[in-house]
Amino acid sequence: SGGTVPRHRPPPSDMGRGLTLLLLPLALLVAPAQAEAGKAAAEEEVKIEVLHLPEACSPKSKKGDLLNAHYDGFLASDGSKFYCSRTQNEGHPKWFVLGVGQVIKGLDIAMMNMCPGEKRKVIIPPSLAYGQQGYAQGKIPPNATLIFEIELYAVNKGPRSVEAFNQIDKDSDKKLSELEISQYLKEEFARDGKKRHPSVHDEILADIFKKNDHDRDGFISAKEYNVYQHDEL
């Protein structure tokens, strides 16, 4: 099954890491199931060219970090552009968590040890992208080598799902109620001190449940919340 390039707006960057975990869409190009791993795939690797490296290169990205980046994707075969983050979501850079499969494996590899302000050009073989199947919806043919030009804006400490979940789950029943999340939103908003219309709170609350309450029982369970396949809960 192929991935999708979501068209909704990414979360504001000022809402705290725990909240970001709840709101974070599966941004960028979501990786499809990789059926054809094989020996050849193990031998192929991502080629990385650093186009710009800031003098102060810190912090460097690692697995689990929350990254904010713009990037363009091209087919290596003819140089045609198949994706541009600047034309999606009103031009907002993408937020995603590194190394957890929210993007194709080649991008998870290509953006490791990268610092804010750094620009890279990376070449990703088919085995670390969309493989033999390609991704028709994204106009990516079978066995396509992909080129990405990436500009990284921010490296944040990524959401720690267990800590954030337990922080919101006031009654420790391993599920998050609308009241618990509503209270958490109020605390987050109070922490950053920015003035917001009351409707923003309601819209975000509704959006959280729409995206996370998969069985529609009015609660977000530990399993529903725990989108990064941690098993501590």
In percent, how helical is the residue content? 25-40%
Q: What is the SS-derived class? A: alpha+beta
Total DSSP E strands: 8
Q: In angstroms, what is the radius of gyration? A: 19 Å
Structure description:
- By secondary structure, the protein is of the alpha+beta class.
- It has two domains: 47-156, Roll (Chitinase A, domain 3), CATH 3.10.50; 162-221, Orthogonal Bundle (Recoverin, domain 1).
- The protein is built from seven helices and eight strands.
- Strands 1, 2, 3, 4, 5 and 6 form a six-stranded antiparallel sheet that branches. It has a two-stranded antiparallel ribbon with strand order 7-8.
- Strand 2 and strand 3 (81-84) form a beta hairpin.
- Helix 1 (17-23) crosses helix 4 (161-168) and helix 5 crosses helix 6 (198-212).
- It is globular and about 55 Å long.
- Residues 1-42 and 227-233 have low confidence and may be disordered.
- This is peptidylprolyl isomerase.
- Residues 64-156 form the PPIase FKBP-type domain.
- It catalyses: [protein]-peptidylproline (omega=180) = [protein]-peptidylproline (omega=0).
- One of its GO terms (molecular function) is calcium ion binding.
- InterPro entries: EF-hand-dom_pair (IPR011992), EF_Hand_1_Ca_BS (IPR018247), EF_hand_dom (IPR002048), PPIase_dom_sf (IPR046357), PPIase_FKBP (IPR052273), PPIase_FKBP_dom (IPR001179).
Write the layout of secondary structure elements.
Layout: H1 17-23, H2 38-43, E1 47-52, E2 66-75, E3 81-84, E4 94-97, H3 105-110, E5 119-124, E6 146-156, H4 161-168, E7 175-176, H5 178-192, H6 198-212, E8 220-221, H7 222-225
Antiparallel strand pairs: 1-5, 2-3, 2-4, 2-6, 5-6, 7-8
Helix pairs in contact: 1-4, 5-6
Catalytic activity: [protein]-peptidylproline (omega=180) = [protein]-peptidylproline (omega=0)
Protein name: peptidylprolyl isomerase
GO cellular component, one term: endoplasmic reticulum
